[in-house]
Known about the structure:
Blueprint: H1 2-25, H2 27-52, H3 59-69, H4 73-103, H5 111-143, H6 149-152, E1 155-156, H7 163-170, H8 174-201, H9 210-236, E2 254-255, H10 263-279
Antiparallel strand pairs: 1-2
Helix pairs in contact: 1-2, 2-4, 2-8, 2-9, 4-5, 5-8, 8-9
Amino acid sequence: MACRGVRLYVITGSIKTMNLVKILDSSVGQKIVAGATGLALVGFLLVHMGGNLQIFAGADALNQYAVLLKSSAAILWTARLGLLSLILLHIAMTVRQSVRNRRQRNQRYAKTSFRRTTRASRSMMLTGIVVLAFVIFHLLHFTGGLILPGAYQQKDAEGRHHVYAMVVDGFSNPLIVLVYVVGMLGMSIHLKHAISSALQTLGLAKEGHESALRKASPLIAAVIIAGFLVVPISVATGLVTDETSGGEGSTAGVVPDERPISSEETNTAVAARIKRDIRR
């Protein structure tokens, strides 16, 4: 009886797996998964944007927020792996849709509609590549500390990772600001189409409200992009500096990391400081 139960469980699991594979292999299934993962990533962007805006509350607020995010390694890495899974699944589904669309180009039905869809799909693929390249750069910059490593290794007066100083030093470099502006422009174009498309695919847009949805999607995209761009632009224009974090409880002072720092890393940090001082 036990063996029979195990066999039944295995067979049931296999059927469910086969059904899932069929769903993911279908055009509708791919659109649903791409839409769902896309909206989940939009939700992450909103949360991430809120965290970034902590910079306007001063160094102490932003540095403490960073400490809070890293307070549990298990939660942090679970969130990171979950986010990575969403990104990979979203990319896989959109690429498969693009391949399917290319194969259907020579079909005779709905030529006008198909041309419109193909143009939108092409735009989504191109901007998606721009966004992916930007995300990789962003991770290397602020998460990995491989770009401007001297700025990444700073600590505040309380021994915390000086995220505030890292951000100010990073965005004092015009080339880095340019990369972020280009990345955000690509993301705005991507989101403009993606949000409305995802809501329609998942059936979250009520019938007759398509026009309002098309107008709301660019607005939502604009809010997200403005929320991300306001930080580098504020630093680049001098509205946010190390000095703007002053006041009671300020941790604007920088304490060097205790471990030895290479001359290359030191020169990078000094160069960033000099550039910022010149602009003042």
